[in-house]
Amino acid sequence: MKPNQSAALGTESIGSLLIKQAVPASIGILVMSLNILVDTIFVGNWIGSIAIAAINVVLPVSFFIAALGMAIGIGGSSIISRALGADNKERALKTFGNQITLTLLLTTLMVVFGLIFINELIPAFGGKGDIFEPAKIYYRIVLYGVPLLALCMMGNNVIRAEGKPKFAMIAMIIPSVGNLVLDYILINLLDMGMEGAAWATTVSYGLCFLYVLWFFLSDKSELKINWSHFGLNTSIIKEMSALGFVTLARQAVVSVTYLLMNNILFNLGGEASVAAYGIIGRMLMFALFPVLGVTQGFLPIAGYNYGAHKFPRVRESINKAILYAGGLGLLIFAAIMIFPEEIVSVFTTNAEILSGTPHYMRWVFAATPIIAIQLIGSAYFQAIGKAVPALLLTLTRQGFFFIPLIFILPHYFGELGVWISFPAADVLSTIVTGYFLNREIRKTITE
Question: Taking the domains of the chain in order of start, what are their residue ranges?
Fold first, then answer.
């Protein structure tokens, strides 16, 4: 592979680049989401609906630690994309080395903290009653593999910043396929229950890490670092942290949202409502894969061309990314509105869960056609290195709107108020993001 392949981000047509970047990213997210989806189906059918709720309780903790790697990956990759666009190879190398060092330090500390306070964290995230024991089993084992997942998330974003989305796609596919195969062996054949589900997940993280390590050690990568690049650099860490904090803050809010949702729904409807949220949450991860894929594909294109001062290409990438992602969002919306009962029935045969979940799912996905503006808008500020607006716009949906709404609306609509909060937050955050994105375009990249 040619070492200057990243230069194609500044020369090929935007439409072609978006497809080349977004399709592998979408496939990777699809396979990863299918993994979560099928994993939930396996667990629900082979262990029981309580197991779905138990895994849903653990997700915020493991996802937050893994998000440290993603945050460092996205924050550093923004620097790498712009450095490659400006032909500053040494800065790109130093950034990558700092990403590795920081990921290892922070995730290891978080895992130690997570294991020490295991008995306090699980109930805090909704692991109460019958959910506690299976959640504790799953949590302890999965936490061992989370640092490897963080390194994979970090490395995946760097691979994409180099302009090599196909390898990033493979890095996402490997743990997903591995987890499903191991799920079948450990849960179904060996009857290991929650321990089997947990070990399948942890070992799959290890497989992904081995692939990412191979990529960077092989001639596929143009980022060949040495020991001097691992030493932490204050200016790079500061910029990386500011940009990465956007992703970390978003995931922190997601974790807080899980905590609040699990507890609010447990109080309103018990274990069945928590399990319903587990199913809908998996569908949110799965169904939005093409929209998220376009967003992932958009980041390196916008960052590289902004770094190269090719502003007309930046503006074109914004417009086409919103157009493509919005069209895909409309198709997702139609599918969810038409087939919610069929979707829910795949996960469980529990009559109590089947009765309300399809209706709630329709509410959750009601604003899907417009979310592309919010996702692309907040991602743009992150791609060009403007950390403060990126952070604020990223937090608008769940932090500024959704969390307050789930406290307010249930007073008027009961449990339904929780589900109405999803589209309400989507609409409000889209309006805010659209305003600031349009203002930024007019101010900085008008032709």
Answer: 13-444
